[in-house]
Amino acid sequence: MPHLLSLIREDISNVMEHDPAAKSRFEVFLCYSGLHAIWFYRINHWFWNHRFFLIGRLFSQFARLLTGIEIHPGAKLGRRLFIDHGMGVVIGETTIVGDDVTLYQGVTLGGTGKEHGKRHPTLEDNVVVGGGAKILGNITVGKNCRIGAGSVVLRNVPENSTVVGVPGHIIFREGKRVVITDPKQINDPLSEALASVATEVHKLRDRVQRLEGSEPEHEPVHPSLQGIMDDLDYQI
After folding, report:
1. Do 216 and 189 sit in the same domain of this protein?
2. What order do you get walking across the sheet with 176-177 strand by strand?
């Protein structure tokens, strides 16, 4: 019990430090849904660790109804996590969050498929994730990183970096500007997929024509699709 009370005091102090809108500790205790979600999570996480899986999941759904924040009881959250506003925040089962992390409304720490095992991101200490950002898959965001609002991060991010965009790309690293001189250096998974499909279609067409005994006829490719195929060589 003393440990639990000290954690509650620490959480309230953390909110007072991060949110200039907080007027009193009593207000924080009563009115901050991000704080309530974290307290619910700690109870649910205890049930989960003691193999009361259904109870942990059931209470996590109850917490979501009350706070608008969904935290899977299997996630591992560090100390002094600050969820500002919080509506729409989703934290997946195998997510790992370090200490002193800040998440704004609409953030998703999610997976990208149906694979088992570690499938959600790891956020190291002192990471700030802007509103609406999506960090997806078994990737690691290093210490002291900043993820811009609305960004979609699909790859590992080194320490002390700032990431923006869809898909996310680094614009600052170790306090220095990362200059992208060619827009094609920004990886676009959709373009890669379309170019791959177009390449396979051309190979299959040539093969069918050879089997039919005729010479392959290379029809002109639509300019927009040709642009995607040309860009593929420059993707990172």
Report:
1. yes
2. 82-83, 102-103, 128-129, 146-147, 161-164, 169-173, 176-177
Same domain, 173 and 128: yes
pLDDT tens, per residue, the chain with 236 residues:
457 788 889 999 999 999 899 999 999 999 999 999 999 999 999 999 999 999 999 999 999 999 999 999 999 999 999 999 889 999 999 999 999 999 999 999 998 877 788 999 999 999 999 999 999 999 999 999 999 999 999 999 999 999 998 888 888 888 777 766 555 555 555 556 666 787 888 888 888 888 877 665 555 555 555 555 555 443 43
By C-alpha distance, which of 96, 101, 35 is closest to 69? Answer: 35
Domain around 196: 185-232
C-alpha separations of 226 from 50, 110, 196, 206 in Å: 56, 33, 12, 18
Shared domain for 17 and 61, answered yes or no, is: yes
User: What values do phi and psi take at 128, rounded to 5?
Assistant: -120, 125
From the list 69, 95, 65, the residue with the least C-alpha distance to 82 is: 69
Q: Same domain, yes or no, for 136 and 217?
A: no
Do 119 and 214 have their domain in common?
no
User: Structure pTM?
Assistant: 0.73
